[in-house]
Amino acid sequence: MYAFGDDFQPFTESVNTLDEIVTEYIIEMCHEAAKSASHARRNKIKVDDFKFALRRDPRKLGRVEELLAMTKVIQDARKQFDETGTTMNPR
Asked: What keywords sit in the KW lines (predicted)?
């Protein structure tokens, strides 16, 4: 909340309310993705199921696509780094 201009120490009620809203949203998205997987006769949820659940919200869907693309770039960079013979220390 601080990053968006809120006080450094927000009210506990504000934190709890935001936590409740975010938790409810995540649960709803997971249920929507599970429905999509169920219609496809699958037991496991895939990334495409979440993308399908977000299909009516182009802004969020675009952000998902952007994050997936960045994940791919990071994975490729790590693979290229590892191929040079050096190892990274895992955190």
From this structure: Nucleus, Transcription, Transcription regulation
